[in-house]
Amino acid sequence: MKILKYLLITVLTLTALVFALGFFAKKTYHIERSIEIEAPKSLVFESVSQFKIVDKWSPWNELDPNMIKIFSGTDGAVGAEFIWSGNEEVGAGTQTIQAISPDRVDLLLHISKPFKAIFPASFILTGDSLKTKITWTLDPVLPFPVNVWAMFTNVDRAMGKDYERGLGNLKKHCEAIVHPKYRGFEVAEIELPLQYYVGVRAQTDTADVLTFYATNLPKAMEAVKAADLKPSGPPSSLFWTWEDGMSDMAATVPTSELKKYTDDIEAFPVGGGLALVIQYFGPYEGIGEAHLALGDYIVEKEFESMLPVIEEFVTDHETEPDTSKWLTKVIYFVKPKVDSVATGK
After folding, report:
1. Last residue of a domain, one of 178, 207, 231
2. 3 within a domain of the structure (yes/no)
3. For tag attachment on the chain, is the N or C end more exposed, with fewer CB atoms within 10 Å?
């Protein structure tokens, strides 16, 4: 009987202790994570204000692919609801849009499992047509006895890891829309300044372009040095044509100034306008796919290519033996086609 008595006393003591801790334990928390996304603010806003789009990047889908989901109301408007029910990792509840503006979306989460609680949350956006900073917040109010458990847990880390993963997913989602891929490559449209490419130009067998480049690049570098200039970028090959197995090309070094050189060295003014750029990683033998991808992009966007084309060797092939790490920028300067401008396309 004494054992039962001591056991009862122990249970009552522990219960009293839990209630005492629950009375004093912190109940309110603030979770906040931010990320910068290279996408227009309007696109990011659309991706966080509509539940059906949020579902495409939600970090909780990875935890329960079989989660039951119900959407109700006008998606992207005040009153819209997302109801979910899943395994023990995602629980169950309802999200409701409370307020919405171009800079902010306020939500209210009614948690029903694994415990009952109400959590305010928000997405706060700043940015422009190029880049957006988004901050995702959560202000959980933990009920007893969950708040006692929280005393022995890093709540910010435990909940914040899902937010970090979700923002990473959101970044990938938005940037994939802004920068669609062509033949597996992302094409960037950027403005590049005028540069003078100094080097040796000639017709060579297309199969021997690397040999031509390796043979003549030292001449270009020596000419730039003799002119008391410094390279303004990585060494590059320029291409005007690829016809009948022959390439009209030059092995060059870019500079920011124009000077006179010997008869076998030329300076080619290139750029000063809109350029399409692909960053190609891999052995040189596969670079043709990057050129084809840019060709597809030019056709789709109704651009006209302005020669020469540039292959910029960012990685030194002699110092990096791993060809998968070779970075070559393929650059096409373009302008809108005349007929596209005339028709307003």
Report:
1. 178
2. no
3. N
**How far apart, in Å, are the Cα atoms of 248 and each of 11, 43, 107, 324?**
89, 43, 61, 27
- DSSP element (H, E) containing 339: helix 338-343
- 153 sits in the region (left: phi over 0; alpha: psi -120 to 50; else beta) called beta
pLDDT by position in tens, the chain (length 345): 445 444 444 443 434 433 444 444 455 678 899 999 999 998 999 999 999 999 999 999 999 999 999 999 999 999 999 999 999 888 999 999 999 998 999 999 998 887 788 889 999 999 987 899 999 998 877 654 454 454 446 556 777 788 999 999 999 999 888 877 899 898 888 899 999 999 999 999 999 999 999 999 999 999 999 999 999 999 999 999 988 999 999 999 999 888 888 878 999 999 989 999 999 999 999 999 999 999 999 999 999 999 999 999 999 888 889 999 999 999 999 999 876 444 454
Q: How many helices (H) and strands (E) does the chain have?
A: 8, 17
Q: Is residue 18 part of a domain?
A: no
Task: Indicate the number of domains in the chain.
Answer: 2
